Amino acid sequence: MIDYRPELIQKLTHLWDAGREGLFKKSPGLFNSFREEAFSTFLSLGLPDKKNEAYKYTDLDKFFSYDYRGYYVPSTADYTQAERFKCEVEDLDVWNIVLMNGFYPHSDQGLMMLPGGFWAGSMTAAAKQFPGLIQRHYNKYVTNDKDGLVHLNTALASDGLFIYAPKGTTISKPLQIVNLVHSDRDIFVQDRNLIVVEEGADLTLLVCDHALSPQHFLTNTVTEVYVGQNARFNIIRVQNQHNDAGKITQTFIHQERDSYASSNNITLHGGLVRNATYHTLAGENAETHSYGLFLSDKSQHTANYVFVDHSAPHCNSTQLFKGVLDDDATGAFNGRILVRPLAQGTNAYQANNNILMTPEAKMSTKPQLEIFADDVKCSHGATVGQLDEEALFYLRSRGIDEREARLMMMFGFAHEVIQNIHIEALRERIDTLVMQRLRGELSRCASCAIKCN
Amino acid sequence: MDNNQDKVLNEVTQGEYKYGFVTDIDTEKIPVGLNEEIVRLISAKKNEPEWLLEFRLKAFRHWQTMKMPSWANLKIPEIKYQDIIYYAAPKQRVAPESMDDVDPELKKTFEKLGIPLEEQKRLTGVAVDAVMDSVSVKTTFRETLAEEGIIFCSFSEAVREHPSLVQKYLASVVPYTDNFFAALNSAVFSDGSFCYIPKGVRCPMELSTYFRINAANTGQFERTLLIADEEAYVSYLEGCTAPQRDENQLHAAVVEIVAERGAEVKYSTVQNWYPGDREGRGGIYNFVTKRGICKGESSKISWTQVETGSAITWKYPSCILRGDNSVGEFYSVAVTNNHQQADTGTKMIHLGKNTRSTIVSKGISAGLSQNSYRGLVKVVKKADNARNFSQCDSLLLGDRCGAHTFPYIEVDNQSAVVEHEATTSRIGEDQIFYCNQRGISTEDAIGLIVNGYAREVINKLPMEFAVEATKLLQISLEGSVG
User: Fold this and answer.
1) Which backbone phi and psi does B276 adopt, to 5 degrees?
2) Is the dihedral of CA A352, A358, A359, A361 positive or negative?
3) Most A CBs within 10 Å: which of B408, B431, B480, B481, as the mutation test of the A interface?
4) Residue of B341, B400, B412 to mutate, testing the A interface (most A Cβ within 10 Å of its Cβ)
5) Which percentage of chain A shows pLDDT scores above 90?
6) Cα A84 to chain center, whole Å?
């Protein structure tokens, strides 16, 4: 491929050259063994641009053009800050883990065992403690090898979160990961996470993304998830970063037979957010759900990319993505359902609804179906529009003022996604957050969205 | 029941192509290949004015800088553009003044295809422009139409007789720089139909062009230009067939439609080029650029297509809705069977205020075929109150074919309402069972269901075409396995 943006690539090459030595020294051999090749693949693929169908409506250039510093070795000060960070949600009882700039900051422990036999902690530590397990799963579920950013992550990621739910374990309460970025300089963070949910295990994850300082941040996250036979896995992501923070996540969920997975991306704030979720249904009778909601304003850009790959018969999948765009915000949705020839008996549904609040907002959506089997029921629907005037009139004729009526309708629109969160306390909390957001009370957020101190 | 269904499917989907015969007629051809000399030769053969030759040469030079696009969801074997004959014409001594001057072989060919060239024998009030290989053979009812001021003739005649009109509108909707095949067509187009409906005239009969490829190793590159002046109305039909051959032939046409204020154009296509045999040998590559512009206020362009032929179909009849309150419509049934591939759909570009568009696309795939819908709905910032509704359904008959949907929706205006929905499924066993228990055989039941499925589109066709389209559907698919 021709390199059309040499200066951006050059910057990234500088980051690589600068951090390389430290990176190789600190990381386990297994991770290092992928790095050189991944970086050269990245160079040959380049940064995804608008010619790439998956990025057709998302412009990454602006966020890649800042002078970022790499973050390969965490500082003690950051550790202390992370440890002081507390997140409290009323009635929400969770196990709490804080990641600082993509690092698991509890250097002394590295890995901790939670009641029920769960393991959670740093990838680096996990590579020492569970070498066989990591070898089996690391870099195995990345299904999109055409995306330069995945390779960039494989090359540069120094740490990340490792969660291991051994066979038959059930966690007593959800695990909350608070992803913080904090620095006094512009930094580019790469974290790489691996989640292994073995046969019959059950895990619910709540991931919150926050930026603590007003610098430019860019985070390039790759998460691999293995969901074993008959296992259950839920991930809920709440993103609340300021307008100078860019967040690119790619989550690869690999499912074995009879398994269940759900993913829910709630984006409240963020200069550039792109969430890509890949669901691979590799075993029969697996079920997967992908939800997303974004509320964007100013010049924010929010993109959701979903790819559901039906590779086995009798699997079910649903997708529901909604967006509300205010001011100059732009949004993109790109959903793909692929039903392979073997995957008979597939049910796959997809819906994408968007509301434009101002004449300047812009939404592009591209729902796709690729179907190679005949015994299937697949559908998709996409809409872009505004609030229904008739419904508005109905509310107003009952004495509700216009502003309140609009809020009610938008809230109802958003709630359809939120209602799929099955942890009650969290669902209520997110409802409140969304209401605040819609009222404009939740402005640029330097602290945690979930009532953090 | 499954076995029975299989048998029925085999019998019916493997029905022979009816129009695969070759007419034995002297054909004038030019040497194989493509270069500037060939472009000049084509132009010279047609005694074209200087400006048209210039246009061709510009297009050709531009084409040389382009590469064949590869984004479509199609597997296209390499096309050797230098092995194609770019001009072939049935030999005629003189231009036919009356029906008696037309070569009897030619007349027979069109009779066999069911196209009435002789006006007195007409069954329906349809004026036909018959195009064989590269040139127009005969246009019927010219005089009747001329009384109303309507110009309906071959493209070459239009260049000779109405050069100002042609010069004004040629490439105004599809410029030669538009895409690879439009550039190729602009360089080498040989003939086609030209139609102009003057202000306030409602065309009294259906106009029709019938395209026939006959000569071997040739490509067909025709160009249709359709202009509806203010408050005019026309319904236009297009049909096509080709002989059965083992090699692939290229058909790269351009259709341009201009609708001025208050005009309405209805363009219907029943595309039945030779689709290739059961093993996927031969067949036509149908790479066509069709686009209409609703230039004036309250104008309307409606595309209806029934696509059953061609080895590979790659086309997107589109509407540019520039005038305020203009309307664009697209109704399509695309059927693929055996090794056929289709990547077809539409583009609706909303530029004016209060513009509306409707897209209804029904894909049916059987055998080993791949059928894709690809469409774009774009609402620009100034297009207040734009409205679009799209519905794309796919029906799968058999477990080795594919159905794909790639809709693109780009909305840059708050007041726009854009809706898209798509479904993919097969004929349910319960539906067949329901029919069976009411005494309807499996074969009839499938015919019934497929016809019902495509009805919404077929209903939009003019009556003469609707009958043909229904028959075509039956030939291609009736009795397919659910």
Assistant:
1) 95, 165
2) negative
3) B408
4) B412
5) 46
6) 25
Closest to A373 (Cβ–Cβ): which among B399, B417, B423?
B399
Query: Where along chain B do its domains lie?
Result: 25-428
| Cβ-based contacts under 8 A for chains A and B | 111
List B residues 170-199 in contact with A (Cβ-Cβ < 8 A).
Answer: none
Contact assessment for residue A249 and residue A110, using Cβ atoms and an 8 Å cutoff? no
Q: With an 8 Å Cβ cutoff, is A372 touching chain B?
A: yes
pLDDT of B73-116, one tens digit each?
Answer: 888 888 888 888 888 877 654 455 555 666 677 677 766 666 66
Q: What residues contact residue B164 under an 8 Å CB cut-off, 6+ apart? A: none
Q: How far is CA A120 from CA A27, A112, A116, A139, A156, in A?
A: 18, 6, 12, 19, 22
Distance CA(B79)–CA(B84), nearest Å, equals 9
The single-letter code of the amino acid at B280 is: G
Distance (Å) from the alpha carbon of A323 to chain B's nearest alpha carbon: 13
Closest CB from B396, B405, B409 relative to A384: B409
Q: For B284-307, give the DSSP string.
A: EEEEEEEEEEE-STT-EEEEEEEE
pLDDT at B9 over 60: no
Residue B451, judged by CB atoms within 10 A of its CB (0-12, 13-18, 19+), counts as middle
Angle at alpha carbon of residue B237, lines to B234 and B242, rounded to 5°: 160
The residue in chain B having the minimum alpha-carbon distance to the alpha carbon of residue A53 is B71
**Residues B409, A357: C-beta atoms closer than 8 Å:** no
Taking the Cβ of residue A367 and every Cβ of chain B, the question of whether any pair is shorter than 8 Å is answered with yes
**DSSP assignment letter at B101:** G
Q: Is-contact A391 B446, C-beta < 8 A?
A: no
What pLDDT digit, counting tens, does each position of A417-434 carry?
Answer: 999 998 888 898 889 888
As for the ipTM of the complex, it is 0.79
Q: Which of A99, A101, A102 is nearest to A83 (CA)?
A: A99
Between CA B482 and CA B474 the distance in angstroms is 15
- The residue ranges of every structural domain in chain A are 6-386+421-439
Angular region, B293: left φ>0, alpha ψ -120 to 50, beta rest: beta
Residues A226-244 pLDDT 10s: 999 999 999 999 998 888 8
- Return d(Cα B296, Cα A82) in angstroms, integer: 64
- In sequence order, the β-bridge partners of residue A370 are A338, B404
Task: Pick the closest to residue A149 from A8, A13, A42, A37 (CA basis).
Answer: A42
Q: Give yes or no for B70 touching A (CB within 8 A).
A: no
CA distance B249 to A211: 60
Residue that wins the pLDDT comparison between B118 and A250: A250
Q: How many angstroms separate the CA of residue A256 from the nearest CA in chain B?
A: 24
CB B409 within 8 A of CB A365: yes
- In B, minimum Cα distance to A346 occurs at B425
